[in-house]
Amino acid sequence: MRKKTYDEVSVVKALNKKRDVKVYYYDKRIEVTIGTTECGNGTWGKIDYLVHYHCYVQLWVKQKANVANVEKVAPNKATKRQKKESTSDAPRALGKKMKNFKVRTNA
Predict the structure, then answer these.
(1) Highest mean predicted confidence (pLDDT) among 14-28, 52-66, 70-84
(2) What is the DSSP letter of 38?
(3) Measured distance CA(18)–CA(47) in Å, rounded
(4) pLDDT per residue over 23-68, tens digit each?
């Protein structure tokens, strides 16, 4: 196989797309979640490139629970459900039936 040529910007962009890898360009720091299964050989090669050629520091971190993010999402979904339930479909359905309503006479 041919040796890959990397550049710092494209490697940082590629690693930032990974969920369990965070790259802080200004601190030259890479945080990898402990026990990640998302990182394959290519990802580890990119991390190794940044560490050995651009003086980045690799840190292992525990998985953080996004409690603040969960709290923001849950009330928003609840309010959407409440709005949907409060506007019942009965008036709309009745309006559609009334448009199609025909009076039949037995003559």
Answers:
(1) 14-28
(2) S
(3) 12
(4) 999 999 999 999 888 899 999 999 999 999 999 999 999 976 554 4
Of all residues in the chain, what percent carry a pLDDT higher than 90? 48
Amino acid 61 reads V
**Three-state DSSP class for residue 67:** helix
Q: How far apart are CA 83 and CA 102, in angstroms?
A: 33
Q: Taking the CA atoms of 80, 83, 85 and 89 in sequence, report the sign of the dihedral they define.
A: negative
CA distance 24 to 16: 9
Token couple for 103: 């009076």
